[in-house]
Amino acid sequence: MRRLALISLTALALSAMPALAQELTAITGGRVLTGTSIIENGTVVIQNGRVVSVGTGAAPSGARIIDARGKVVAPGFVAVDAGLGASEISSVDGSDDLSNRANTISASFDVSYGLDPWSFTLPVARLGGITRAIVMPNHAGSGGGGLHQDDGEVEFAGAGDGGYQTPGLFAGTASVIHLAAGTDILVKPRVAMVAPFGEAGAGIAGGARGAQFVQFRETLSEVRLYARNKAAYDRAGLRDLSLSRADLEALIPVANGEMPVVVTVRRAADILQVLRLADEEGVKVILDGADEGWLVAPQIAAAGVPVLLNPIDNLPGSIETRASRMENAAALNAAGVVIAIKGNGVHRAREARYNAGNAVSHGLPFEAAIAALTVNPARIFGMGGQFGELRAGAAADVVVWSGDPLEPLSLVTAEFINGQEQSLTSRQMLLRDRYRAGGRVNGGMPVAYGN
């Protein structure tokens, strides 16, 4: 009887069973990175899923002690734009819930309904110190250029089936999750809208950047018209609109300046136009990518717009990234821009700390790099003070590292999410341990061939 999958799943589930969050625990003697400061020989006390205190005092009586002498204690990292829990194998459609092609569901696409708490990607990310993530939908045109149908013809946004805009200019809404073992990882759905600009957005809108900006404005105009005239819409007394009711409803918070739009944009000229659009339309934006952001860092800072970036994007893969450079993160931070550092996709989200280390080697201050992995992502997505930093009252997302967390050889030695201690294993590690000696048990056949 072949039991490989069952054994791996069962072993992983059992090993991931958390300790009770109610236990009073003190992590003592470590170098504590709070997310906003550094405390030498610090003590972090947690109980009931929250941080009780952070400082240099002694551990409270009766607390379980975790000795962190010679180690580093930090907030759990927050992955941005990682797709964790919503995509298992990107090339297998049935396991990827980040993309949507329905023309009546674009802005209203909600990734939170596709989250999988048993995803094999979550334990791997935890081993990289990640305890929370902002899960964002993929846009059909995010790779740049137009969309391609099966017949090879380029598809541009316009009136599609039912008269609705297709493909949509919006990818859908992002969600916040935690990575603790359990059955419910959703923290908050619909924290931001996602939309591509630059080459990708132009490709969707008709081939030119100007077309997308006009269409974006017209879409907001339609949303505001609908919001003012819902009764007329209900009785078919309003002119035809290019979005479905679900999409119109989803975009009302965007049009009102309440929900931010994560805008994928890379070229400096495009960044300036997005800032102009946001100001004129009263829309909140978060820049995603901003490879040439360093060229217009003062303008981004003046607009108070945060940036999600991968600091190792330094090769001009297209004309719109011809001025990308490794010092981008440092230049944006020096100008006063709030930045968050990204990993390298779903299966390499844990590499965000490596990217932050590279940014430090190219001028970003160490403390700013830690903030870009912890407190900044939380603040950018409206969750400041709730997680991403070690402070009294915040979620007890605490990671103990063997050394500097930005050093690739450092390992997680203890990890808590919402005060629950997490397993430090993954399916890959279980498979490694099983087959490192050829997969044989006591010199016999592999377990999968047993009865």
Automatic annotation (TrEMBL):
<feature type="domain" description="Amidohydrolase-related">
    <location>
        <begin position="314"/>
        <end position="412"/>
    </location>
</feature>
<dbReference type="InterPro" id="IPR011059">
    <property type="entry name" value="Metal-dep_hydrolase_composite"/>
</dbReference>
<dbReference type="GO" id="GO:0016810">
    <property type="term" value="F:hydrolase activity, acting on carbon-nitrogen (but not peptide) bonds"/>
</dbReference>
<feature type="signal peptide">
    <location>
        <begin position="1"/>
        <end position="21"/>
    </location>
</feature>
<protein>
    <submittedName>
        <fullName>Amidohydrolase</fullName>
    </submittedName>
</protein>
<keyword id="KW-0378">Hydrolase</keyword>
<dbReference type="InterPro" id="IPR032466">
    <property type="entry name" value="Metal_Hydrolase"/>
</dbReference>
<dbReference type="InterPro" id="IPR006680">
    <property type="entry name" value="Amidohydro-rel"/>
</dbReference>
<dbReference type="Pfam" id="PF01979">
    <property type="entry name" value="Amidohydro_1"/>
</dbReference>
<dbReference type="InterPro" id="IPR051781">
    <property type="entry name" value="Metallo-dep_Hydrolase"/>
</dbReference>
<keyword id="KW-0732">Signal</keyword>
